[in-house]
Amino acid sequence: MAPNDATPGHWINVLLYALTGFVLFSSLLKISSGNILFSFITSILFIAHPVHTEVVASIKSRDEIMAFLFSIWALERYINYVRSKKILSLVIASFLFFVALLSKESAITFLAIFPLTAYFFTDEKIAVSLKSLIPIAIVTGIFLIIRSSILGGISSESFSVADNLLEAAKDPITKFSTTVLIMGLYLKILLFPHPLVFDYSYNQIPLVGAGSPGFIASALFYGGMLIFSFWKLKSKNLFAYSILFSLLPYLYLLIFSLQ
């Protein structure tokens, strides 16, 4: 790009982040059928939140920006297909989601967000919206095949404690409890973004057991949010949707902790 000069890379991140904010607003506006208040508040909070500072400032974190950019764009095209039944929209959604997966594998959690969004913002039956996911599931399968062919020989033992603190956990309960604690710390940073630290690797977060106050508090808080969301699920409450939208990506972290 520019030998010994990271400036162009930083500007690309800034432009991609600005594009992500625009795509987020326009996508939510279309998905919510013109609910400008919901779309505007969500987009402004996303763009201005301090927790995204490191993602924009670090050239390495471009994968995070691109994964979300193409995932939310794919979501809008998927909802467009559910409403209009235009095949081109589904083809574009599948392609965009494939690019999102190639950007970062954690985008795979959007597979759950697609039908969730269809349920909240369309009148389509759940079975039909799930059937519409088949092409997207196919490109996900292709991605997993590619990933397996590249990383198939890498085992969990290949990761050190310095790279992932969960590798230091001696048993599944400790690993799971620490994961839930980390989720609680994520929530704390989301609500009170101070201090912001760019590296949470070795020895930054303690391993905890099921009796840890931090684990219990985090589990109770997330459990309460889930109960509220399921309680308001039938009425298609926007707060319930927002909570589930934000919690579903944590499935990736939880599944990883159980491996």
How would you describe this protein?
The chain is mainly α. The protein has two domains: 7-151, no CATH class; 158-257, no CATH class. Helix content is 68%, strand content 0%. The chain has twelve helices and no strands. The chain has helices spanning 7-31, 36-48, 53-57, 62-84, 87-103, 110-121, 126-131, 134-151, 172-191, 213-231, 238-247, 250-257. The protein starts with 6 loop residues before the first helix and ends with a helix. The mean pLDDT is 89.
Give a concise summary:
By secondary structure, this protein is mainly α. 68% of the residues lie in helices and 0% in strands.
What is the topology?
Blueprint: H1 7-31, H2 36-48, H3 53-57, H4 62-84, H5 87-103, H6 110-121, H7 126-131, H8 134-151, H9 172-191, H10 213-231, H11 238-247, H12 250-257
Helix pairs in contact: 1-2, 1-4, 4-5, 4-6, 5-8, 6-11, 9-10, 9-12, 10-11
Strand content: under 5%
Most strands sheet: none
Arithmetic mean pLDDT: 89
What quaternary form is this?
Answer: single chain
Structural class: mainly alpha
Q: Could you tell me the radius of gyration in angstroms?
A: 19 Å
From the N-terminal CA to the C-terminal CA, the straight-line distance is 38 Å
Helix content: 55-70%
The secondary-structure element order is HHHHHHHHHHHH
Say how many strands there are.
0
Number of helices: 12
Instruction: Estimate nothing, just give the exact number of structural domains.
Output: 2
Shape: globular
**Poorly predicted residue ranges:** none
